[in-house]
Fold these 2 entries.
Entry 1:
Amino acid sequence: MGERQPFKMRQARDATGLVVSARQIGQKPEPFTRPLRCPYCEHEVTAQPEQPRVSTKGKAFTRGAHFALAKEKEKGRTAEHLAGCALRTDHTLHAIARRSQGLAELGPRYLQTLWPCLR
Ligand SMILES: [Zn+2]
């Protein structure tokens, strides 16, 4: 898992409030109205069409269509969901687990602390 890997999203919300799926990316005419936003916050996202890629080991693969957070305007800042966004929570939990030096790890749906006294 890459540290700086921006979150890939399967869904986004278009300018009219319609929820669109990554499967709709690339359809002509485009079945959604830009700008697109995260389904859970006001952060702008971009539609990334399915794309043939070559891995670092030289193996060809297809990167599936998805939505990605639009880059922050300020340089050096990682794009992040706005406060209160359900997906940002996810991001935050990952960050806590990474920095806990093994005291906490990410369960399938929640953060588990390995110290019983912290539960
Ligand atoms: Zn969000």
Entry 2:
Amino acid sequence: MFKKTLLIDLDGVLNQYKGDFNKDIIPPVLNGAKEFLNKISQKYDIKIFTTRNKLKTVKWLIENELDIFIIDITDKKELAWAYIDDRCIQFRGDFKQLIHDLEIFKPWYHN
Ligand SMILES: [Mg+2]
């Protein structure tokens, strides 16, 4: 079965990152992330989208038993059906709206 690809960010989506980046420590897995990946990986090919060290990321995925849901890790914006990120703003074809969305933007953990 053909599966669409999703690129999913690591920090602030799959883990408990709250804006305090440390390149040596990947925060603990976020509650519900495993169940989420389990569910959507049945329909989509999942790639982790991160600039973190690839080996550290692989180790973290294995330790958290998430590796079985993931087909690759990339730091490039590869072709995908959708991108899931804690710091993205969706462009809806309207630049005025985009400026507004940018001005009110906050990651979910800064509420
Ligand atoms: Mg992030």
